[in-house]
Each structure stands twice: as structure tokens, then as C-alpha cells.
Amino acid sequence: MKLLTIAEASGITRLSVKTLYSKVCRREVPFTKLGGKLLFDEDRLRKWIDDHSVEPTAAAASGRARV
Questions:
Q1: Structure pTM?
Q2: With contact defined as beta carbons under 8 Å apart, do 15 and 47 qualify?
Q3: Using CA atoms in the order 61, 46, 51, 11, what is the torsion angle rounded to 10 degrees?
Q4: Fewest CB atoms within 10 Å of the CB: 3, 15, 63, 64?
């Protein structure tokens, strides 16, 4: 298990530190508090990213979908 600081987690998620703090406050992202430090398990964080991935639809594959 590799624990990441919020700055390292920000780099992996490509979210700002401020956004990550907000997600922690709303319990939207997996985190751990150890000795008053906010830490993120790298494996759980990558799984959280995978769980929030959206698969393309047939329309997207043909180039007709809009985001």
C-alpha cells in the first residue's frame, strides 16, 4: 500500500488541491487520516478514478455524440 499526500493525489487525479479538499469534506473520494495528516491510498484512488470512467456509446464511437 502506497499512501500519497494531497499534492501527489492531485497530480494523479489532475484535480486541484482545493477541489480534492472539497471532495474529502463531502466524502466523495477515498482518503485516510493518520496522525492528523490527510493521505490517499494510491490503489483506492486509482480504482475511484476507474469507477468514475464513462464508456463510449455507439454515437460517440461514430463521432456524433456531444459532451
A1: 0.77
A2: no
A3: -70
A4: 63
Mean pLDDT in runs of 10 for the chain (67 residues)? 96 97 97 96 96 82 62
Give whole-number Cα distances, 16 to 22, 23, 62, 65, in Å: 10, 11, 33, 28
Task: Compute CA distances 28 → 10, 17, 18, whole Å.
Answer: 14, 14, 14
| Sign of the torsion formed by the C-alpha atoms of 53, 55, 61 and 66 | negative
Which DSSP symbol is given to 67?
-
pLDDT of residue 50: 95
Q: Name, in order, each residue with C-beta under 8 angstroms of 65's C-beta and a sequence gap of 6 or more.
A: 56, 57, 59
